[in-house]
Amino acid sequence: QSKEPIKVGILHSLSGTMAISETALKDVALMQIEAINKAGGVLGRKLEPVVVDPASNWPLFAEKTRQLLTKDKVSVVFGCWTSVSRKSALPVFEELNGLLFYPVQYEGEEMSKNVFYTGAAPNQQAIPAVEYLMSKEGGAAKRFVLLGTDYVYPRTTNKILRAFLKSKGVDEKDIDEKYTPFGHSDYQTIVADIKKFSQGGKTAVISTINGDSNVPFYKELGNAGLKAKDVPVVAFSVGEEELRGVDTKPLVGHLAAWNYFMSVKNPANDAFKKEWADYSKAKSLPTAGKPLTNDPMEATVVGMKMWKAAVEKAGTTDVDAVRKAMYGQKVVAPSGFTLEMGNNHHLYKPVMIGEVKADGQFNVVWKTPTTIRAKPWSPFIAGNEGKADMVK
Amino acid sequence: MKFRVLNCLFTLVTSLVIGNTFAADLSQKDLVQIFGEEFAAKQSSINKIIKAPPEVAAEVLAALQDESLLSDGKVVVIKTNEGYLDPISHVIVKIDESSLETPNLNNILRSDIETAASQFKLLSKDPEIREQSLNSLMADMSGLNVAIVKSAKEKESNAGLITKFNELIAMLDYPSSNEEDKIKAIQTMGNSSSAKVQEFLKGLLKKNDAGEFIEPNNTLRVAIELALRDYQSRKSRSEIVSNIFTGLSLGSVLLLAAMGLAITYGLIGVINMAHGEFLMVGAYATFIIQSIFRAHFPGALEYYLVFAAPFSFMASAMLGLVLEYLVLRHLYGRPLETLLATFGVSLLMMQLVRVIFGAQNVEVANPSWMSGSFMPFQSIFPGLLIPYNRLIIFFFSIFVVFITWLVLNKTRMGLFVRAVTQNRTMASCVGVKTRQIDSYAFAFGAGIAGLGGCALSQIGNVGPDLGQTYIIDSFMVVVLGGVGQLAGTIIGAFGLGILSKFSEPFIGAVLTKIGVLVMIILFIQKRPQGMFALKGRSAEM
Amino acid sequence: MNQSFHLNIPQREPILTTKWWMVLLALSILVYVLVPICSLLVPEGNVFHLSAYSLTLIGKMLCFALAALALDLVWGYCGILSLGHGLFFSLGGYIMGMYLMRMIGTDGVYHSELPDFMVFLDWKELPWFWYGTNHFVWVVFLILVIPGLIAFIFGFFAFRSRIKGVYLSIITQAFTYATMLLFFRNETGFGGNNGFTDFKRILGYSISNPGTRVVLFLMSFTMLVAGFIACRRIVQSKLGRVTMAIRDAESRVMFSGYDPLGYKLFIWTFSAFLCGIAGALYVPQVGIINPGEMSPSNSIELAVWVAVGGRATLIGPIIGTFMVNGAKTVFTAIAPEYWLFILGSLFVLVTLYIPNGVVGLIKEKILKK
Amino acid sequence: MLQVQKINQFYSGSHILRDVTFEVPKGSLTVLMGRNGVGKTTMTKAIMGVVPIKSGDILLEGKSIIKMPSYERVANGIAFVPQGRDIFPRLTVHENLLVGGASLKASKKIPEMIYELFPILKEMSHRNGGDLSGGQQQQLAIGRALMSQPKLIILDEPTEGIQPNIITQIGETLVKLVKEQGITILLIEQYLDFIKKVADKYVVMSRGEIIAQGNGSEIDQDGIGQLVSV
Amino acid sequence: MQTSSSTIPIETTDFQPEWESKGNSGHFLEKGKIDLSHGEILYIEDLVVSFDGFKAIKGLTLDILSGELRCIIGPNGAGKTTMMDVITGKTGPRNAQVSGRVFLGQTIDLLKLKEPQIAQIGIGRKFQKPTVFENLKVWENLELARKSNKSWRVALTAKVNQDAIEDMEKTLLQIGLEKEAYIPAGELSHGQKQRLEIGMLLMQKPELLLLDEPAAGMTDEETMQLADLLNQLRGTCSIVVVEHDMEFVSALSGETGIVTVLAEGAVLAQGTMEHVKNDPAVIESYLGR
Ligand SMILES: Nc1ncnc2c1ncn2[C@@H]1O[C@H](COP(=O)(O)OP(=O)(O)OP(=O)(O)O)[C@@H](O)[C@H]1O
Ligand SMILES: Nc1ncnc2c1ncn2[C@@H]1O[C@H](COP(=O)(O)OP(=O)(O)OP(=O)(O)O)[C@@H](O)[C@H]1O
Ligand SMILES: [Mg+2]
Ligand SMILES: [Mg+2]
């Protein structure tokens, strides 16, 4: 009985628009499962991955979740990237009391007992980044362009940032909020506008532009001769993977805020990078020629390690028991910090600011000295006052 | 070699600077601070470098900029061809190479360094470098030595740069000049096309914290206002021109995306849902050529596009041939079924690319002759900026249109293609080799799409979803222009481009997109067959 | 000449032959009796147990089938290939979604009367179009009217200016796409990209309750059957014949004194109406509605289902829907990386080798015998 | 020139051509006649390779052509003027004529002869084929067929919709083509007066079968008028 | 038979054409009736039609008396088909430049109406190229064409009644397609389609019947049968026939009927067959020597 493998669901889009980001997460999850199995599995049982493809189709996330939980009877699911996919699957996790590890930074405003959020909440990414931009070190920006793709994450983040900026005494007229449709590819006008706006004082752009729109945006910035030292752009969705397909010359010096960068130097990260490079080569993944790691991949690995530890602590894969065991779990993460799972189901995370280098890597120019506790209920959003910062 | 250049620079700088009384001495200890973690320490260290004797400052700053300033944490050296040079004592020292690191600088520090270094570069032989340093000095005038600027101007021969020097000096001297000179300075600055100068003028009109005007003189303020107004009118003219250009450039992108479709769909009657994927194939073909050049002919990398364009045409065309042979051949005369089959094909092609190249985007870089931009007619259109890649793509799209027109209207094949489209059986019955024409025509359309993909790779992503981004727009353009009407496609593309670009500043990108779609829908109401509708009896039945 | 010639045509063609009525009856009994038993009474683990997973899965397909049926009516019988039926489907879904959002009440994360997304966008009150959406009757009314009304207005202008063929297809696509972008915007008031989700109950019953699920399932089945019979009825009527004539030779129809506008509009609006109902039933079963449903590829896929099953057959689209979606469900699970190859090839092969769809194939086979 | 041997053809189950056998002698003008729906057009289409045939053979100058696609048959010297004309509606008159010469190596100039026959074509050479009136289109179709320098021309009811004086002229032209240029012609026609003037040989079809044939001069004697009407 | 009665009711039962003749003053007119008070059913004056500068009709004036059977002949491209296109609304301000007056009866301005309205007030037309509903069976073609209320609401519940069946039987016999009644019209031969289309017109029971080369593609005998058929219809409606077959025209016009010759978009000659045949201009441009 006990030799039967433990099933682990992997719920990432392998086709459709999100495949570009999610495929790597599936692979890194498989890598971690293989590693765990090599080391003897969990509770003496092997892990058996169950991979499904929700095809970037949001209702399909709910359907596949139900399939994983009821038909395949997996003990835990690692998956989702976009908020909407998580929101689609969430009711099913709650109904069937399943467990989801969600590895991507998001807008917060959620705290489900069936989800562990291993990506950043806004206060672990957006706010420190803006603080940095306003500091002398970051260029003492006075005016801000909040530029995003028109959907919930950018809207919420920008709402929070707006409130934050206001609290720091930034004037309404010094904030310019702009949105582009999904898949927008012509940034000529927007860049011209930014240029104009920046003539009114030291300006920084906070970009929540999603996915594919980034390349045309940065290329246009380069075209217009807007250099990072004039108008720095700090992006929350641009990481190593996103820069893979980009000619980084015009980007050098622009910023990104994450909780992990591939360029971080420490033994844990060296091991992680090596493991990934070896795995990519062994499985001859299409990206094996240039194996890159990034923040959500790190979050996936951290989540899986924590889950393993929690299961071992609980002695069972039972969801409720594992959940209890998760709180306070610690893992030495590739970011070089020891991350702890809070009772609010979010990780304590460090924040790092990196500048793009010509080789597509980031040069960490600033980081928090310690990890920060996530505030999924942002104090800058009305209605969050008095919300319990923990899962009951 | 480098050593010698630096030495040269020295003598120049020394001869230039009249007095350096306030030059402070610099020590290794100051320099080492740049290699630390503390931002404030780094900044103060850089300040010290700037204040150091000019010859030392110039050398250290230059070394910082080209990343040859290294340290093992204790000693700071400059890497030269002769060996490692101690910047303070100016002797070659021995040091363990493996422990040397560059300092970790951020944007702010780098731009401080750049501004400081710019002063010393005003005498560079290369006018471009002189212009760059002038520009960066204009952007940040703090800590600038007027004497250096003035003596550099004396040596300047380039008329354009002299104007710039004058503008810079006008700004620098303004606070300390008398009224007459101020009027002259305002004139000089008023004629400038630089936004920085205008900002400076605007700043003069503001009130300081005490509520007094920064420029207390009334007449001068009026003069400034007039100068600004004049600038403003030039500026808005320039904005219109720039909008037209961005519109045309968006139009040319749409045109490149739609051109292949205009052939495969408009002429051959295949509703090709895989059209986007032919664009994608073209883009990936460009990527492959680039990779080959990178690996085997790095010297010629600049010119990889010259090979990539025909190659992407061929790649897409070959694929078109295969698709035509395997699938479409059996579906002629059943246009709606081609829609379904090609939809399946598009799924297949996307997934195939994902499997081969990975789901992530691949990198296609602009060659340097396609990056950056130039600023023509600054005196008439201040701030007008034309990016090279946009301009080249514009001309490329015209070129593609021309080729298409040539093939379709000036060759027998074009005639036969049109005949076959209109009546397949009859064309065969007058001796047109329909099968051959079908394959050629479709391959040609696919090839044109491939060319489009090659161009698109220069401005956007190259990934498995590339095609999806453009497919809807392509259909819009073709339908708006009138199916089967090349001229319509062209007008449609540029019309849409310019329309979008004129409305975007007012209602934003999202509403513009919606608005444009709604406009197309309304427009088709008026002209159900598109802008260049077919007329006459033949269109009716 | 043969003067004693008599034309034998039935007064009105029967909607179904007796044989098919019996099949339908048997099927209904099976569904109405067995589905509740198998999903509610048979214990889990038993082979005959119908899991919630299968129930929602089939329920979803029933809704898709209804939408496909609706598309077949306009495409198969009137020659209008709409690439925008996803819009009507989503509209129905969104209206139902509004009701379900209101039914969450104060159980949302902000414990507000307003839907969550409005709270965190700082909206203070409901936009006007949300009024009354907490009343089920009003919502049902909207579901029945709005998709049809939008279709009517769009159709009126399109058909009046005689837009046909691919032009029509493309502008329906543009229309849907524009609406999708509109719905993506948070300001529009429909929850932006995330849409509506996290529903709790419908008419007071918990939405995750097995009983509720069975009822929703049976509703979908009933609507599909009703829709099928209604379409059959329309197709068999004179109106259906005129529509087919319009498909073949629109101008001749006009010279025979018919104004195609009314005919096309009726079929078009009715089709949108069915689609809206399908969408409304779909949402409570899958638990989410968002602008992604309006993406052009969804609408194209709908057309693919119709084509796979067989155009202008009514039963074909239903079969096609189940086949394609069934294949998708199976292959996304067993071959997650390669299912697109399978699906893509399926589309190609079907169009190449069974041009008249599965039903056409069966008909041919039977005819040959 | 052309031998049709035991052709059988079906349209979705119904037997249209039944063992049709006849011959078009070289350098002659043969007329194929018959009532509506007996299969004349189907016959021409079978010769052109537009409809598949079930069994039988068609020989052009002794060579079987049934395996060839239509355009190869054209390249072998057959030209076709179909019933309903099938002009390319969105090509100009000039282009329509050019396409007619598709089987030739390179496009030639349009022979003056065609314009002499149908002056209207020159006048309208830049209008779209589809805009022409019915009769003008018919003239264009004949002109187009002549473009390929054929050995055998098949005309399916070429006089349909054409004004009387041009019908006469077409008749004269056909005769001239046969007599002067040695072109062989297979003509489908219903118009008896016209047939009498031009036919060297006639063939009568009924319900997919050949029921009579003979010399053109003997049509009246054979009482063909009756046969065709019934 | 010359009808000089003032009005002919087009429909006695439930028929309500969906049009409104605006600005028609002078005569009190019941809705749905053609005012024939001057004996003319069709009246064309100074009609000019041009397509992007090409004048297809140049100042055509023509009137057709009620109950008349008028033959129109003329060279290819004379504008005969175009004239019919204008009368039936196929060509109009929407796709050409049209000026002049085209009236049905005294009061109905055809240039203002749309195709279906024109068909409903009683103009039937056969096209030069036969057009039938290919996917419908022959009887269904006839049934659709039959005069009845053509609104979609009625069509939804309409039944094929006994009258209709009898009408169809009669027509099928008239056009000799009784054996083909149950096959799809797409499977008919050219001539058969030609006849089916005429049958559809008969079902439509028009006041004015426009036939564009109805005999094309028919055998001589069939042509004569058609002539008989049209002669039988004489009196029940007014007919305009365009033909190139002189025998057919002769058979239709008889000795007294008027034949109009169009050339280059205008009337070249008009008179009895005998008169026209001997007109040198007609011989020159049309008949040939
Ligand atoms: N596409 C088709 N499908 C099925 N049957 C057809 C088709 N085309 C023609 N037929 C049938 O084949 C028979 C012969 O038709 P065909 O066109 O050859 O006649 P035809 O002798 O040319 O007559 P006409 O003088 O009217 O042109 C007719 O009975 C017709 O119904
Ligand atoms: N839509 C159009 N666009 C351009 N020219 C047209 C159009 N319709 C008709 N014409 C031209 O108008 C003239 C008259 O054409 P019409 O069809 O009326 O002639 P017709 O008298 O019917 O000739 P036929 O006896 O050959 O049928 C022709 O020269 C034709 O080319
Ligand atoms: Mg025929
Ligand atoms: Mg005509």
**Proportion of helical residues of chain B:** 55-70%
Largest sheet of chain B: 4 strands, antiparallel
Catalogue the unreliable spans of chain B: 1-22
Total strand segments of chain E: 12
Oligomer: heteropentamer
Mean pLDDT across the residues of chain B is 80
Question: Topology, pairings included?
Answer:
The complex is a heteropentamer of chains A (392), B (541), C (369), D (230) and E (289).
Chain B: H1 2-16, H2 28-32, H3 39-51, H4 54-65, E1 69-71, E2 76-79, E3 84-85, E4 92-93, H5 107-121, H6 127-139, H7 146-155, H8 159-173, H9 179-190, H10 195-205, H11 218-267, H12 275-296, H13 304-326, H14 335-357, E5 373-374, E6 386-387, H15 388-410, H16 412-422, H17 424-429, H18 434-456, H19 466-481, H20 486-526, H21 537-540
Antiparallel strand pairs in B: 1-2, 2-3, 3-4, 5-6
Helix pairs in contact in B: 1-4, 3-5, 4-5, 5-6, 6-8, 7-8, 8-9, 9-11, 10-11, 11-15, 11-18, 11-19, 11-20, 12-13, 12-18, 12-19, 13-18, 15-16, 15-18, 16-18, 19-20
Chain D: E1 2-11, E2 14-24, E3 29-34, H1 40-48, E4 55-60, E5 63-64, H2 70-75, E6 78-81, H3 93-100, H4 112-117, H5 119-123, H6 134-146, E7 152-156, H7 164-181, E8 184-188, H8 192-198, E9 201-206, E10 209-215, H9 219-222, H10 224-229
Parallel strand pairs in D: 3-8, 3-9, 6-7, 7-8
Antiparallel strand pairs in D: 1-2, 1-4, 4-5, 9-10
Chain E: E1 7-9, E2 33-35, E3 40-51, E4 54-65, E5 69-73, H1 80-88, E6 97-104, E7 108-109, H2 115-120, E8 123-126, H3 138-145, H4 152-157, H5 162-175, H6 190-204, E9 208-212, H7 220-233, E10 238-242, H8 246-253, E11 258-263, E12 266-272, H9 273-277, H10 280-287
Parallel strand pairs in E: 5-10, 5-11, 8-9, 9-10
Antiparallel strand pairs in E: 1-2, 3-4, 3-6, 6-7, 11-12
Helix pairs in contact in E: 3-6, 5-6, 7-8
The complex binds adenosine-5'-triphosphate (2 copies) and magnesium ion (MG) (2 copies).
The site of one magnesium ion (MG) has 3 residues of chain D, from helix 1.
Family (chain D): Belongs to the ABC transporter superfamily.
Keywords (chain D): Amino-acid transport, ATP-binding, Cell inner membrane, Cell membrane, Membrane, Nucleotide-binding, Transport
InterPro entries (chain D): AAA+_ATPase, ABC_transporter-like_ATP-bd, ABC_transptr_urea_ATP-bd_UrtE, BCAA_Transport_ATP-bd_LivF, P-loop_NTPase
Could you explain the architecture of this structure?
The complex is a heteropentamer of chains A (392), B (541), C (369), D (230) and E (289). With 392 residues, chain A is an alpha/beta fold. Chain A contains eleven helices and 14 strands. With 541 residues, chain B is mainly α. Chain B has two domains: 2-198, no CATH class; 236-526, ABC transporter involved in vitamin B12 uptake, BtuC, CATH 1.10.3470. In chain B, helix 12 crosses helix 13, helix 15 packs antiparallel against helix 18 (434-456) and helix 16 crosses helix 18 (434-456). Residues 1-22 of chain B have low confidence and may be disordered. Chain C is an all-alpha fold and 369 residues long. Chain C has a domain at 50-294. In chain C, the strands form two sheets. Chain C has a two-stranded antiparallel sheet. The longest helix of chain C is centred in the N-terminal third of the chain and has 27 residues, at 52-78. The two termini of chain C are 35 Å apart. By secondary structure, chain D is α/β, with parallel strands linked by helices. Chain D has one domain (2-225): Rossmann fold (3-Layer(aba) Sandwich). In chain D, the strands form two sheets. A six-stranded mixed beta sheet of chain D has the order 6-7-8-3-9-10, sandwiched between helices. In chain D, strand 7 (152-156), helix 7 and strand 8 (184-188) form a beta-alpha-beta unit. Chain D is globular, with a radius of gyration of 17 Å. Chain D starts with a strand and ends with a helix. The model of chain D has no long low-confidence stretch (mean pLDDT 86). The interface between A and B is large, with 56 and 57 residues. The complex binds adenosine-5'-triphosphate (2 copies) and magnesium ion (MG) (2 copies). One magnesium ion (MG) is lined by residues 80-81, 128, 212 of chain E. Chain D: This is Amino acid/amide ABC transporter ATP-binding protein 2, HAAT family. Chain D: Keywords: Amino-acid transport, ATP-binding, Cell inner membrane, Cell membrane, Membrane, Nucleotide-binding, Transport. Chain D: InterPro entries: AAA+_ATPase, ABC_transporter-like_ATP-bd, ABC_transptr_urea_ATP-bd_UrtE, BCAA_Transport_ATP-bd_LivF, P-loop_NTPase. Chain D: Residues 2-230 form the ABC transporter domain.
